[in-house]
């Protein structure tokens, strides 16, 4: 899979984009009407030349009143024949950057376990679009998707470390990893407890990019597979658990975007990933155990399947010890978030109004939606059990995403500002620019919001 734009060329075929009900380009002649072209979203009509070859194509955009539903409309044009194409015009209501990025995102194919794929169509980058920036954003998203789509047989904590090292080395970033019993010696008891039953040692991955400026610390949940531990998930719920490292994958993709676009210049960026597998063995942590945390508070384990907040707690405490200006956690954390907002819309938790507004506004501008939810302080009592300082899984099941966020907030103390995104990391049904499978959520929103965050 090659991520690229086509070079500008006189031989690139024209592609017209047409809203349903709008006049067709005169150059198309009567052919589209004869073929039943109606401008439906994604409908493509190939235009013949006098010799029977191709002279161009028209693609429908659908109802202009629903334009906001399909920001990456041009991703649908991936079904065009191979060759080079260029936009013949830019219809009103469309953003050239979003079209170009949509085209690139639509190129994604997960081909690791398949043979070579047939080359697809290429687009000449539209005028006024920063091609290098769009390519860098797409490359970061492709890294995230590749990591999430890779099964746990080929992406455990050790391979997550290898991927992080490869990225850090390519960016000239510094990386340190603490693994196995060294986690206990250096006071990361929750990360060790969750991952100790797995064949691959648990570890904490720490990447740093930049030496001066405000500090942005990103903490990504890296549970490479989640059986649920001794509170074993049913088979139907375990099938997608290779994606439980979606927060870590998104954090690495975001780091690649920050470096590739130059957005990291003038910042100190730190990425922390607790990489574990939540497995079942004789030494697995148990329901009812009381665990110590790096920060100090004890945690009663009332469900071993609520392990993500445990590993994040130690990593966030470590990150907060340097008092970053902004800490953001990214995690495929709760089913409650999916019940509330569905797979496409991750909840955002943030106490700082300016930070939350910057993130939410940027998210809507770039088509990477998030929705603010409350840190509802009255629910703090729900995460305070009888025999320990904190409860990792309050009984009753209500407000599960909020109580998880409140749990994490306890370990963000010391950071100047804190935001948490409870992402899904998976596209259950293919959509323009988002094939079925692993998907990044929140990274492009954070990237776009940076000028307003620092």
From TrEMBL:
A GO molecular-function annotation: aminopeptidase activity
Cytosol aminopeptidase domain ranges (all copies): 303-310
Keyword Manganese found: yes
Keywords tagged on the record: Aminopeptidase, Hydrolase, Manganese, Protease
Database matches in CDD domains: Peptidase_M17
Keyword Protease applies: yes
Similarity field: Belongs to the peptidase M17 family.
Identification of the protein by name: Leucyl aminopeptidase family protein
